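Notes continue from the previous slide.

Worked example: a multi-chain complex. Inputs as given:
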Amino acid sequence: MKYVIIGGVAGGAGTAARLRRMDETAEIVIFEKGKYISYANCGLPYYIGEVIKERDKLLIQTAASFKSRFNTDVRVNTEVTAIQPAEKKVTAKCSVTAEVYEESYDKLVLAPGAFPVRPPLLGIDGEGIFTLRNVSDMDAIKQYVHSGGIRRAVVIGAGFVGLEMAENLHHLGLEVSIVEKVSQILPPLDFNIAAIVQQHIRAKGVRLYLDTAVSAFERQDGEVSVKLGNGDSIEADIVIMSVGVRPDTRLALAAGLETGKSGGIVVNEFLQTSDPDIYAVGDAIEFPNPFTGKPGPAYLAGPANKQGRICANNLVAGNVQKYPGSISTAIVKVFDMTVGIAGMASKNLQKEGIRNIVSTTHGGSHAGYYPGARQLTIQIAFAPVSGRLLSAQVAGYEGTDKRLDVLASIIQRNGTVYDLAEFEHAYAPPFSSAKDPVNIAGFVADNILSGRMKVIYPCDISRLEEDTLLLDVRSPAEHDRGGIPDALNIPVDELRDRLHQLPADRKIVIYCQVGLRGYLAQRILMQSGFSRVYNLSGGYRLWEIYQE
Amino acid sequence: MKYVIIGGVAGGAGTAARLRRMDETAEIVIFEKGKYISYANCGLPYYIGEVIKERDKLLIQTAASFKSRFNTDVRVNTEVTAIQPAEKKVTAKCSVTAEVYEESYDKLVLAPGAFPVRPPLLGIDGEGIFTLRNVSDMDAIKQYVHSGGIRRAVVIGAGFVGLEMAENLHHLGLEVSIVEKVSQILPPLDFNIAAIVQQHIRAKGVRLYLDTAVSAFERQDGEVSVKLGNGDSIEADIVIMSVGVRPDTRLALAAGLETGKSGGIVVNEFLQTSDPDIYAVGDAIEFPNPFTGKPGPAYLAGPANKQGRICANNLVAGNVQKYPGSISTAIVKVFDMTVGIAGMASKNLQKEGIRNIVSTTHGGSHAGYYPGARQLTIQIAFAPVSGRLLSAQVAGYEGTDKRLDVLASIIQRNGTVYDLAEFEHAYAPPFSSAKDPVNIAGFVADNILSGRMKVIYPCDISRLEEDTLLLDVRSPAEHDRGGIPDALNIPVDELRDRLHQLPADRKIVIYCQVGLRGYLAQRILMQSGFSRVYNLSGGYRLWEIYQE
Ligand SMILES: Cc1cc2nc3c(=O)[nH]c(=O)nc-3n(C[C@H](O)[C@H](O)[C@H](O)COP(=O)(O)OP(=O)(O)OC[C@H]3O[C@@H](n4cnc5c(N)ncnc54)[C@H](O)[C@@H]3O)c2cc1C
Ligand SMILES: Cc1cc2nc3c(=O)[nH]c(=O)nc-3n(C[C@H](O)[C@H](O)[C@H](O)COP(=O)(O)OP(=O)(O)OC[C@H]3O[C@@H](n4cnc5c(N)ncnc54)[C@H](O)[C@@H]3O)c2cc1C
Ligand SMILES: CC(C)(COP(=O)(O)OP(=O)(O)OC[C@H]1O[C@@H](n2cnc3c(N)ncnc32)[C@H](O)[C@@H]1OP(=O)(O)O)[C@@H](O)C(=O)NCCC(=O)NCCS
Ligand SMILES: CC(C)(COP(=O)(O)OP(=O)(O)OC[C@H]1O[C@@H](n2cnc3c(N)ncnc32)[C@H](O)[C@@H]1OP(=O)(O)O)[C@@H](O)C(=O)NCCC(=O)NCCS
């Protein structure tokens, strides 16, 4: 059996490695148009930022090592320029020798990845404007940064890679601005969680231009003037475009393979394209989303690698393993913070017509009495009746990735908020609390679903009915340090004795710092004859962030 | 409704707090024989070690704060000395006033916890020998440590609390020895994983006496001589006994409540004792183990707190929520390392007649090319046919708690090793690799179950048949640094060209450093006419640890 693979990185090299383990006698050929295979795309920003010091570390395998380990014929610097599905051949061109030749296959795997979007803006092809996808891009950026006089960077696009680039350029001592078209960073996330990180980015001295489109670039006097939609401009020595990627479907389209609505190569659950002898994996494909059933991309290294393994299994053993789809678990370090998501943000669920309830809670990374605990924020969205967990977003410091992973594992297995409540975590003081923040998220959702807690959100506060009473149940000291305007302050511990000060006929919106005391206060009021009582989800802390 | 609760810490205070939120009008009385309620038991060792500096931080709530927040009548320094179930009364005695009185209840909750075992050894009641369970114990130890001339400590029992005490006393500058009766630390774990931590403890300069029983204590010249079973003795200035706890069932037994085989109070799935008006939670109860169905204790703060919440729900709403049982997730920091378990160790599964396959893998805490990655070891046990995950043990540094939590969440929801393989974790270089160590554990188990990889364990190596060929597929440099005696060295990358050097008729046991290259080599051999080929699970690294 002869397998030809187009693309030699996460999806392609992963498929090849597993293929070899499954079939020692197969002939395996990898075509890679770039100079390198098996490189760590995800590490590229960190080498630019000199967090990763050795370039070699990014080259996990080379053509030679892949040959000796996996007995695979790796042809770097060789682009496949066409596929002839009827003849089961590909045409390849070596960029070093300029040789063009055909190669036959029994089974073909497409793993060409995605390419960075470069919007057709005036001046975008000028000097000093870069995108980052592969090792050559990285080398080019790194060289430019050190070419002398590079002080100011503009990163366009505040997605995962954009933020990593901003941090890394800042780490090198550059003055960094981020320009983002929509009104928040990290567009796949809900606003509140993104806003927490926005504060942090600003606190680090990075300028953040939200709701800001770039209209053109002008190169003059050795610098790039980034023209903004509102007429302003930002002067920069280097510009990084990180406004997303698109699946590389050029070969697939030319070969008549089916591509889909979201722009990716269509595959069935076995990762087989519309041509039964051609499979496809990685950033280039689209796959039904587990929540909506609608096809979409993943653009993530974990799924690409997992698909590679499944694809190899199916190639060798004949469609034996289904790919379950990706819940799009993604995470990013942003300076000292970590933020991530698994599942579909509430705003996107809403767009898809999927009803969901949101709850935001804050908790310590570990026991408060053990040194070094930091607050982290968990925001979950869940189905109103079943309580099925639809997404989780976490922002914080230590232990953020842990909570996200646990939540992802529960989302992936169709778990509910009750599973969060029951989750038996590993507890000792350096690692968690007797009730983990994941448990707390579950308890609170349980209370919402059972009607024991009625919640209201930061976005509702500015449009409350005239006669609503805002009740701050924190201590007077906390109240004095800042609160939502026009709130009455009765500390929760005094509430039982001061019920007569509250109007039983008015709607009451309670808040405290994080939501816990507000809940306690609400329980007291709801059981003391007050019927229209709401607790502010995420408390004053979230409201304040929401003001961002 | 009048609720009386015996014991005011994890289980008791937790039940009371939830009770109040569920029922604002109930009368709630907590009896606590000690001076404090709601203290952080789990923090006690760290205050002794001065990692936690403020004693107040351990007192999460006080009787007064509990009163004002939860309108609960908390009676500290008051021991319940008897229960009269027929009259629905308890007898209480205040240790301050010596007053003895009765208190009636509608529903009673038992949360008396457990008490430390003090084996009836000669001299055990002498000066300088302590157990640690509550704040007074902590104060007594701390005072003694600082009473002058305390240089050498012996900790008896290498369970979770014993190790924490050893670390904390070491942190204070004491010379510490640990004496453990069985042949490993952390008896609930399998040997291999415990052995990793044993190496670490020894490297820190703590003396570890395994397989060593204590037979008596002798106090002379101001020091304690700890007499060992083998006739030796260790001189110490302070001795900490941490040889386990027993459920405090004294009141329950006297009141005629049913207790069980494992020594705990018997409760049904609603946490109700044999008397329908009496519920019980926490360390004092036994509950069917999810794997064996046999009742056993948990002795963990997470389960105690969760039980408290469920118990309150059942008390107020009438047996509405079932407790699912505990998978005994436990973790401990041991100097720079972290180690923990969820589910039942292989050796205990075996004892219970539950067939299971073990697999040990090592992986980086995060991407190897990003600074600071450390190896962690995952050992899983799973069912031979279904692949159901039965336990997971993890030892390492950063990210150990994360993997354990994810594995626990999958075990708890009856997941399989295939769920580990599919697990879509949050990946960016500072947090993980494209394939998380949890995925790798799943892949490897999948390969074992499918017969693609046949494994052999470190304990098998010393009893291999005479004619077995041991094959080291690491590089010659690695081989020279140390290996299993009498192994032939053929690096995996040369194997395909040197197959003729191997005897097709002999059994071949392959090993590499961690298991990966051994697996690759095995795939080559198995598909090249060699039929009896085994890969050493966990590789040389695990074998070396096993020699401990
Ligand atoms: C800077 C950066 C940071 C990232 N960080 C993360 C992260 O932290 N976490 C995460 O999950 N994901 C991250 N990703 C995304 C992740 O790298 C991709 O999802 C993953 O690499 C996709 O794998 P793939 O095999 O589909 O495509 P790629 O890894 O892009 O590989 C495709 C390869 O195919 C080659 N190719 C294309 N066409 C042809 C052709 N016609 N002939 C020959 N060769 C061809 C390309 O040259 C390329 O090398 C990051 C990506 C980038 C660029
Ligand atoms: C040093 C130490 C470290 C620990 N570390 C961890 C850890 O890291 N992780 C973890 O999960 N677990 C840990 N634990 C275990 C955890 O603390 C217990 O599982 C948990 O506290 C059990 O809760 P409980 O309410 O059943 O019992 P307890 O918390 O022990 O509370 C019982 C209370 O009842 C009182 N009482 C008993 N009898 C009477 C009576 N007759 N009248 C009135 N009052 C009475 C006792 O004085 C006691 O205060 C640790 C325990 C200790 C001692
Ligand atoms: C380098 C590369 C080709 C490796 O592919 P790979 O061999 O499948 O992956 P790994 O090295 O992680 O090894 C995993 C295999 O080893 C096995 N393995 C790992 N540890 C093992 C152990 N201790 N014992 C036995 N087997 C082990 C796994 O089971 C798996 O084999 P399987 O798929 O046949 O089950 C591929 O990962 C790659 O190109 N990576 C770089 C590109 C990339 O991913 N970029 C995006 C992220 S930055
Ligand atoms: C102090 C103590 C009485 C607190 O009990 P508690 O009030 O039930 O627990 P918490 O303070 O964690 O609060 C949890 C409650 O607040 C709610 N909550 C937490 N954060 C919230 C938020 N942001 N918004 C709304 N509600 C919130 C939870 O839903 C939960 O309420 P519920 O059980 O009614 O659903 C008890 O935990 C205790 O005694 N602890 C110390 C002893 C101990 O556990 N020792 C062993 C470990 S060291």
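Summary box: The first strand of chain B starts at residue 2 and ends at 6. The two ends of chain B are 59 Å apart (CA to CA).
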